[in-house]
Specification:
Aspartate Aminotransferase, domain 1; 2 domains; seven-stranded mixed β-sheet; binds pyridoxal-5'-phosphate
């Protein structure tokens, strides 16, 4: 069978399900105001939460590194790809999180598919939240470990699983997102870590979206919940709030050593480019130097949730800068997304498999540097667009003005 015939068959099925996707083209840097598909818009999609991706200091650091080290690492970290920039970034990340060591990966996806099989394999157990990110699911598949999934955030279900897990005689790894990327709610990290440890399991936190944005010092979801020291393995990304590219894992020196020697996505892949490592270092310093960014981000997000609630639109269960407005049906979600784009607001519609079937939504991500008037204008536009449909067809409207919680 030809490639095009396979593509026709698969894409026809995707179109029938209403989940066909296309790429939108952005012009200029990721910023609150930019051009998307040739139109001026306010950007409420993406993860440049702190607006560091084209911050002068971050850009300058990456330009300097390009001049000094060139644009490529040109090899695996174990062959020729570790520069002093990579080492400096890792030691700064370790200090930032109060850990013995850190190791960078090329993306968060690659970190998860590298770390999970490094810790559990055939005969072992991975325990995973039902709404965990796809890269955790794929890490479990690659590990060939037994995978047990518990209902989202359900501590009783988790405890029942851990009690029967066979730990501590068996290797058992609990992995959860810190801040859930499509719902904007937090895992009960302290309680989960306590359960994991009580039953002899290891606790790994994927804090892709909490890093830099949550916690009094920007150390993320676990810091915010008072549980930073309880997490055995902390994974985060450099390509979201840190305005660069890549990811890291922070933990013990022995964990780092284990990953260098066994994590296949680390061993068999070209390293982060030096300008990316330099940009991440500059951004990490800015998280400490400019705390106003995370405070402004959370203030904008709270304002958005409150204004949507005043319009009778739920953003439940969000308590953060990831603000979902669940529409329900795929076609309606994308119609509203396109109508908002025409009005100058880019808030991406998200459908299955990124979210469960029947819960398609607008995923709205404000930035620290949006003006309050821009937040209000977006909320008002969403209210006007959703009001064009029968109230019972919009899930967020059926649920009313819930979900105004603060992190
Ligand atoms: C929770 C979570 N983990 C991991 C990833 C993957 O990170 P990256 O985009 O760096 O591959 C993402 C994001 O996109 C995410 O939301």
């Amino acid at each position: 069978m030809s490639v095009d015939r396979i593509a026709d068959e698969v894409l026809a099925a995707i179109r029938d399900r209403g989940t066909y996707r296309r790429l939108r083209v952005l012009e200029g840097a990721q910023a609150p105001r930019m051009q998307v598909d040739g139109r001026d818009v306010l950007l409420f999609a993406g993860s440049n939460y702190l607006d560091l991706a084209h911050h002068d200091g971050v850009v300058e650091a990456s330009v300097r590194a390009s001049r000094e080290y060139g644009c490529a690492a040109a090899g695996s970290r174990l062959i020729n790809g570790t520069t002093i920039l990579h080492q400096a970034l890792e030691s700064e990340l370790a200090d930032f999180f109060g850990r013995e060591a850190a190791l960078t990966f090329n993306t968060g996806y690659m970190a998860n598919v590298g770390v999970i099989p490094a810790l559990v394999g055939e005969g072992d157990l991975l325990v995973s939240d039902a709404l965990n990110h796809a890269s955790i699911i794929d890490g479990g598949r690659l590990a060939r470990a037994e995978v047990r999934v518990f209902a989202h955030g359900d501590l009783d279900a988790l405890e029942a699983l851990l009690a029967q897990s066979g730990a501590p005689d068996r290797r058992v790894l609990l992995v959860v997102d810190g801040l859930f990327s499509m719902d904007g709610d937090l895992a009960p990290v302290a309680e989960m870590a306590a359960l994991a440890h009580r039953h002899g399991a290891i606790m790994m936190l994927d804090d892709a979206h909490g890093t830099g944005t949550l916690g009094a010092r920007g150390r993320g979801s676990a810091e915010h919940l008072g549980a930073l020291a309880e997490v055995d393995i902390l994974m985060g990304t450099l390509g979201k709030s840190l305005g660069s590219f890549g990811a890291f894992v922070a933990g013990s020196a022995k964990l780092r050593d284990l990953l260098i020697n066994t994590a296949r996505s680390f061993i068999f892949s070209c390293a982060l480019a030096p300008p990316q490592a330099a940009a991440a270092r500059a951004a990490l310093a800015l998280v400490d130097a400019e705390p106003w960014r995370r405070f402004a981000l959370q203030q904008r997000a709270a304002r958005l949730r409150e204004r949507l609630a005043q319009h009778g639109l739920s953003t439940s269960p969000s308590c953060s800068h990831i603000v979902p407005v669940v529409i329900g049906d795929n076609a309606t979600t994308m119609e509203i997304c396109e109508a908002l784009l025409e009005r100058g607001f880019y808030a991406q519609g998200i459908r299955h498999p990124s979210v469960p079937i029947g819960s398609a939504r607008l995923r709205i991500t404000p930035m620290a540097t949006h003006a309050e008037s821009e937040i209000d204008a977006l909320a008002d536009a969403i209210a006007e667009q959703t009001a064009k449909y029968a109230p019972e067809t919009i899930v967020a409207r059926r649920e009313g003005g819930a979900g105004t919680g603060r992190p």
